[in-house]
Amino acid sequence: MHKKLIGGVVVLIVLLLVIVAANSGSSSTEPVLNVSNIKASNVGYGMYEIRTNVTPLKDFDYLEMATTYYDKNGSVIDKNSSAWNINHTKANHVLKVSNMKSFYKKGKPAKVEVQFFDSPHHGGGKSSAIYCRNVTL
Predict the structure, then answer these.
(1) Under a CB-based contact definition with an 8 Å cutoff, are residues 94 and 58 in contact?
(2) Which GO terms describe its molecular function (predicted)?
(3) What are the structural domains of the chain?
C-alpha cells in the first residue's frame, strides 16, 4: 500500500511538471514592438525609401531592421540584413526608422518584406523575427 501511494505521488508530480512546462513555453504571442505608419515609396531616380515609427514595448540591447525587395514576379532583387539598427533602446520611446536603397539597373521592386530582429546574428530567417510585414510599393 505504501509503495502504491508513493508511486501515485510520483505520477502526480510528473504530470504537474509537464503541465507547468507546457504553459511556460517560450512561444509568446505578446507583441514586443509597435510598428506604425510603415511606408515604402519610390522617391525618384531609382531610389526607394522605407519609413516607419517603432515603439519598443520593452527595453532592448539591440534592434535591427532587415529588408527583402521583390519584383512583380516574386523574385528577390535585393536583400539587406542590416538596413537599420540601434543599440540600447528603452521601452515606450518612439524611434523614427528610415532606410533608402538604390535600384538603378537592378529592376523595379513591387513589394518589400520588412523584418525586425533583436539580435545581430539572426540569419535573416522569419522564424527569429520579432516583427514581419510585406509592404506593396
Answers:
(1) no
(2) ATP binding; kinase activity; phosphotransferase activity, carboxyl group as acceptor
(3) 33-136 (2.70.50.40)
From the list 93, 94, 67, 97, the residue with the least C-alpha distance to 85 is 97
Please give the grid coordinates belonging to residue 50. 522605407
Q: Look at residues 110, 99, 117 and name the one whose alpha carbon lies nearest to residue 134.
A: 110
**Within 13 A of 33's CA, how many CA atoms are on the CB side?**
22
Based on its alpha-carbon atoms, the radius of gyration of the chain, rounded to whole angstroms, reads 22
Q: Which residues contact 40 (CB under 8 A, 6 or more apart)?
A: 48, 49, 50, 112, 114, 135, 136, 137
Summarised one tens digit per residue, pLDDT across range 31-83 is 999 999 999 999 999 999 999 999 999 999 999 999 999 999 999 999 999 99
Q: What is the predicted pLDDT for the residue at 3?
A: 60
